[in-house]
Amino acid sequence: MDPIRRNILAMGAAATAVAAAPRVFAQQTGPGGAAPAFYEKGNVRIRYQEAGSGFPLLCIPGGGLDSRIGGWPTAVINAMEVFKNDFRCITMDQRNASGGESTGPIPVDDPWGAFADDQLGLMDHLGIRQFVFFGNCIGGSFALKLMERAPDRIVAAVLSQPIGHRPENPDVMYNSGRDVWAPEFRKRQPDVSMQTIEKYLHNLYRVRPDFVYSVSRDFVRSCQTPMLVLPDDTDAHAYQTSVDVASLAPNAEVTVYPWKDPPELKARTISRARSFLKAHQPMTAAR
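Above: the chain sequence. Below: its structure as tokens.
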């Protein structure tokens, strides 16, 4: 090959590689900038990601059963971004979320307990005993289940826009699971029958239909874990649920509602959430 032509082709290939590198890097990293990793236990495989340093903060994205790392950039509060300068932020794809990479069986008999096992298992894998928690949407129900399952480990939690039962639309979460999540899941796992999925959704959202789904009112009434509730009022995020949690839990606080607009009010709400989490981290970690 002519030397000049060879050099031109080589330079073109190098330029293409340089141009492609940011795209490749973007695919390998997530909201916090660090490459995701995986934790495995038995037949469960959990994709997770970390950002920042300090006392551990487990951040759970919203999206119902499609709760996944990729949801943070469009979240009302991108916890991985806004708290990474204050805490060691850890997030994860929930098992079997569409668009995520965490996988595991469909735990029909104890779905909320299985999610808690995944989350606590990840923290065990990372060598973390105690942590604070920030959860959007379904993350509120996850938080309360963690408080019930491991009250000595989750030291404080922010429940942002928690899901809950709405009497005038009682099956909003069940229908979302059946009509949105299930079809995508069955594309990946066609061997799982709709009968199994419907039983799974029933045990998630219909066994305890009058509150937050994952725990009882009696538990919340007895729960000593400090929590800050950021109310919302949509079909899935029932305002009354936030009021009930804040009223029942002895160490609960609640923000103003609405708080998402204007931007100045949203910024103050985020600042309050940050201050709340910092105030409740163990003193040995704060030094």
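The radius of gyration is 21 Å.
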